[in-house]
Design a protein that fits this description.
It is a single chain. The radius of gyration is 15 Å and the shape is globular. Strands 3-4-5-6-2-1-7 form a 7-stranded mixed beta sheet. Helix 1 crosses helix 2 and helix 1 packs across helix 3. With 180 residues, it is of the alpha+beta class. A hairpin with a 5-residue loop joins strand 5 and strand 6. The longest helix has 21 residues. It has one domain. 26% of the residues lie in helices and 23% in strands.
Length: 180
């Protein structure tokens, strides 16, 4: 038999409401995190108490790409998504613009893979959903207005039939989103 990690897949989608007192939001509304599990070894999620850590592989990443496609479909249900990419220049703010779903998926995946590549998506004006990726295959999402029930519904759609688990961790152990 081969390596047990050879066919590693995403097993669940986790989500958490981030306490307001942590002040991590980059816009108005309630901040949520969504992430696939297991997460890769070395993920900062380990430092806040998440224990589902394993080596990931190409099959796992394909599952995350599929989740990203479903996330984009959810964004379209809420309005027209607009993308802003801050490529290795966090000090330079670029305007949001409309792009194809394929381009948006590539930008979101790049932001998931590399914390130096931040990607923001907004839906609505003012935004009803703002989404950010900045490493560790974690989606940060601001809902305005936000509710846990609505966010659970989004997580179920993104999970595509996989289990969805609310997982509240010790988020105060890390200083800021994007600086984990």
């Amino acid at each position: 038999m081969g390596d047990s990690n050879q066919h590693r897949r995403v097993e669940a989608l986790h989500w958490s409401a981030i306490p307001d007192h942590l002040k991590w939001s980059w816009g108005p509304g309630r901040l949520y995190f969504l992430w696939p599990s297991p997460v890769d070894e070395g993920s900062w999620l380990d430092s806040v108490g998440f224990g589902e850590i394993h080596s990931t592989n190409d099959r796992w990443e394909q599952d995350v790409q599929d989740m990203t496609s479903r996330l984009i479909a959810v964004l379209h249900q809420k309005g027209v998504p607009r993308l802003r990419v801050l490529r290795f220049m966090p000090w330079k703010r670029l305007s949001f613009f409309r792009v194809s779903d394929a381009w948006m998926k590539e930008a979101l995946m790049a932001g998931c893979r590399d914390d130096r590549f931040q990607c923001d998506v907004e839906v609505g004006n003012p935004p009803v959903i703002s989404l950010r990726t900045d490493g560790d295959f974690l989606w940060s999402m601001i809902r305005n207005p936000g509710s846990d029930e609505d966010t659970l519904g989004i997580a179920k759609q993104v999970a595509g039939g996989l289990p969805v688990k609310r997982t509240d961790l010790n988020w105060a152990k890390t200083q800021t989103v994007g600086n984990h």
